[in-house]
Amino acid sequence: MIGSAQQRLTRLFSERLPDRKSVWGVYAVIVFLVYSWTLVTSFYKLPSWMFYLTIDQILSIYAYSFSLNLLESIFLLVGVLFLHFTIFLPLKNKDEFQARSILAVLIVLISSMLRLVLFQTYEDIDAFLSSELLWWAITLSVGILVAVLAPKNAWIKNILGGIAERAAVFFYIYLPLSFISIVVVIVRNIY
Amino acid sequence: MTQLSRRDFLKVAGATFAGVLATRRPVPLKLANSTKPNIIIILWDAFSARHLSLHGYPRLTTPNIDAFAQSSTVFHNHYSGGNFTTTGTASMLTGMIPWKHRAINYGGLVRSEFVHNNPYTLLGSEYFRFAFSQNPWPDRLMGQYDKDVDRFLHPSAYSLMQQNPLIGMFEKDRALASIAVDDFLFPAQNNSIAGSSLIGYQNKSNVLNTAYNPKRIRYPKGAPEIMDPGYLIPYLNEDVYDGVYSELSRLDSEKSPYFAYFHLYSPHFPYRPRTDYRTLFRDDGYRPVVKPVHPMSAGLQDDFMRGQRDLYDRQIAQIDDEFGKLILQLNESGILENSYLIFTADHGELFERGFVGHGFHLMYESVLKIPLIIHAPGQTKREDVYSLTGNIDILPTILSMAGKKEVSDLDGRILPGFGGQMDEDRPIFSVVAVDNSAFGPIKKAVISMRKRNYKLITYLGYDNVEQTYELYDLESDPEELTNLASKDLTILSEMKNEFYENLDRANQPFVQ
């Protein structure tokens, strides 16, 4: 009896478990979005940093940032896998994992970035707080709907697959930088 | 029963407090046993000496400070090295003029070769050294020598917010981690986009929801907030002052003498006095002098500036109450018996010429003149010092109090009344150079030079002012209404020569 339950569970997961290439594809998109956002926003700060920080201090700020980005990207990947094995579990089609997850990540991150851009000033605090619940309710509803329906379309699926493939190049830039960054942060906090 | 008005209450409280201090034992008990005195600095952020009733402000804003002054040394012409926190505080901690220490930009740092010039490093391990700044910018400055701080509280201590756990991980690289984490990756608000798209957003949402949860707050305009870039920390002054007292009680149980620096945020903007102070000074008939709008100001209307001034004065009155309670507690517990207590500010605040606040390009008296009141162990009588002093004098004075030898490369001098000499010919400089690189010669800045009864303001590298120089005789024109730059050419020439001599000398190391 226990054996048959195990078999059923194994079958259940093997039907739904995405292959490694798809997971890496999703992670590549996450890495691209998370790190690029940090880089782009840092360009707004860079002129003022150059006014009062030395080059090694500025590079150290990037070290902190890339270390956090690595953590953030892993969080997001874990979140995506969690979604896949919880609310998306009834969707047996593991071939759609990559497209579905990329869409979910895009919608959540872009929504979060939009809010960061839209509500920047002290005067925006009331608007930020009053709109927060509705904003995320809409984002999540739209996100789930799009993540479930859009991958059914082969054209969308192909495009998202292409994005994942091209984003993989950022691994080779950002991940080694992150590991160096972690070493820098550790060294700075030891001595 | 006759109800006591707030003002009467403040007067009675102040008088009681003065009485308590005056009846103290003249020879401190602990001083006899210990060779070194404790040194405590309590600093109010953005507190102009011009708003102290002690210095003749028409409103009774500070009866408790006035009472504290009755057994202390009061400095009547004390100036900050800058007009905002980083520059002002760095001048006080390094004993150097901003053009030398170079913490001249918002949130900037002291040049690495001068970092060792600070009370923590120079007092050494003989002292137990404590630091707490609600304002993150001084926290960052002290983070440059965090190894020499024995107990270092985070700006969110005693606030309504929990400390961000990520920040606690980088205690050994506090200054830079603060810029990376607080300013860049997780800024809560204030015209800054978080560099972290996910955790940064989550942090912002958490901070704003906590800060603006109305159930927590008994304040009509919300709790006061620490709101420098990156931060938005609501706090209650009652909690903060309770925290100051509990820290001092704890420090007093240390075996070694201690140095404690409390950089307290109020009365800094946003001015949010508690509900029971909301009508204080309303319709009291006080009308500040109306001054011409400055071309570099925000062009604010007089009514708005008056309203802001009223709020500021109420906030001062509230924290003056807290200060009074704290001094009573310190006195009752005997903590003051072996301690120097230095009360001061990092810079002042302006409500004139179309501008409210500080840290812009305006260098008038309200934003530069700060209080300095020092209570020495066993002091029962008030002393008054009228000669010009700067907050660059605090560090050498602290070292002298602790019996340490003088440091040669400081610009500051030991204060008169604490071993220093009065020097009527000494110029006092205040610098705002936020638009100038910290690594180059000073070419774009507004610099004030006070000497005798004159004050010269020089606008270097700015085209949007009518005149490069403003010269005031503060004895006959304390409100700085008549610019003598085109009238008193002899004085102008003398002041200019001395100013440029000093500036050229300061720029020398930066000229290729």
Topology, pairings included?
The complex is a heterodimer of chains A (191) and B (512).
Chain A: H1 2-16, H2 20-52, H3 55-85, H4 97-118, H5 125-149, H6 154-190
Chain B: H1 6-22, H2 29-33, E1 38-44, H3 63-69, E2 73-75, E3 78-79, H4 85-94, H5 98-101, H6 119-123, E4 128-133, H7 136-143, E5 151-153, H8 165-168, H9 174-185, H10 199-211, E6 225-226, E7 233-234, H11 237-252, E8 258-264, H12 302-332, E9 339-345, E10 350-352, E11 355-357, H13 365-368, E12 372-375, E13 383-385, E14 389-390, H14 394-401, E15 428-432, E16 445-451, E17 454-460, E18 469-473, H15 489-507
Parallel strand pairs in B: 1-8, 1-9, 2-13, 3-14, 4-5, 4-8
Antiparallel strand pairs in B: 2-12, 6-7, 9-12, 10-11, 15-16, 16-17, 17-18
Helix pairs in contact in B: 1-3, 1-12, 3-12, 7-9, 11-12
Question: Could you explain how this protein is built, in words?
Answer:
The complex is a heterodimer of chains A (191) and B (512). Chain A is an all-alpha fold and 191 residues long. In chain A, 85% of the residues lie in helices and 0% in strands. Chain A contains six helices and no strands. Chain A has helices at residues 2-16, 20-52, 55-85, 97-118, 125-149, 154-190. In chain A, helix 3 crosses helix 6 (154-190). The longest helix of chain A has 37 residues, at 154-190. Chain A is globular, with a radius of gyration of 20 Å. The relative contact order of chain A is 0.15. Chain B has 512 residues and is of the alpha/beta class. Chain B is built from 15 helices and 18 strands. Chain B has helices spanning 6-22, 29-33, 63-69, 85-94, 98-101, 119-123, 136-143, 165-168, 174-185, 199-211, 237-252, 302-332, 365-368, 394-401, 489-507; strands at 38-44, 73-75, 78-79, 128-133, 151-153, 225-226, 233-234, 258-264, 339-345, 350-352, 355-357, 372-375, 383-385, 389-390, 428-432, 445-451, 454-460, 469-473. An eight-stranded mixed beta sheet of chain B has the order 5-4-8-1-9-12-2-13, sandwiched between helices. In chain B, helix 7 (136-143) runs antiparallel to helix 9. The longest helix of chain B is centred in the middle third of the chain and has 31 residues, at 302-332. The radius of gyration of chain B is 22 Å and the shape is globular.
